[in-house]
Amino acid sequence: EKELPRLLNLLELLICFLLLLDIFISYFFTLNNYKMPSDVEDLDTDYDDFGVEPESMRKIFIGGLDYSTTDGMLESYFEQWGEIVDVVVMKNPFTKKSRGFGFITYSHSSMVDEAMANRPHKIGGRVVESKRAVPRDEMARATSNALNVKKLFVGGLKEHEELDLQDYFSQFGKNNLVNQALRVLLILQQIISLHSRATSNAL
After folding, report:
1. In the chain, what is the straight-line distance between the N-terminal and C-terminal CA atoms, in Å?
2. Integer Rg of the chain from CA
3. Nearest partner of 57 among 48, 68, 46, 72, judged by Cα
4. Which one of 36, 127, 132, 165 is most buried, counting C-beta atoms within 10 A?
5. How many domains does the structure of the chain reveal?
6. CATH number of domain containing 101
7. Cβ-Cβ contacts under 8 Å for 159 (sequence gap 6 or more)
8. How far apart, in Å, are the Cα atoms of 8 and each of 4, 186, 189, 203?
9. Residue 138 to residues 118, 144, 145, 156, 157: CA-CA distances in angstroms?
10. The most confident of 129-133, 137-141, 177-181, by mean pLDDT
11. pTM of the model
């Protein structure tokens, strides 16, 4: 038990070393205009972990459908602009009758562009309303907001440590990328935890 505080201090020194190493590496990459691999992956918001675009970017809303229009009819018409991975005509859950609108989901957003470029569309003898499930401006705004997050929560700190934390994170600049700070956040929390445990054991 007497060796525990000493062990914790050694671990703390190791973590501090890793923290300084991380700062040095970040500075080196910034100085040489390189991007860390993790930065490239984190900033790629157009694709999920499997390289597939978000469904919202590949989906089309189809309104004004004839009530006799089926999923198959909808798919048969829209597949001329690309591979369809999902098609559904929305129905009343009680009567099971069509509600007059549906959705088409393509395998790629470029197919949505093609379908939109060939409007108007006529299905079952009537012109239908077709539009992106999520408008382009909303998608762009959502992506922009995701890339411009400027706040980061750091818990478990005492009041007098606020200036120290501010001095540390100022190295990333006023418009810092959150993912850079996240790389060292875990290490900071470990240091704080080790301080608390070492103090309590010493008492």
Report:
1. 12
2. 27
3. 46
4. 132
5. 2
6. 3.30.70.330
7. none
8. 6, 17, 14, 14
9. 22, 10, 10, 36, 37
10. 129-133
11. 0.46
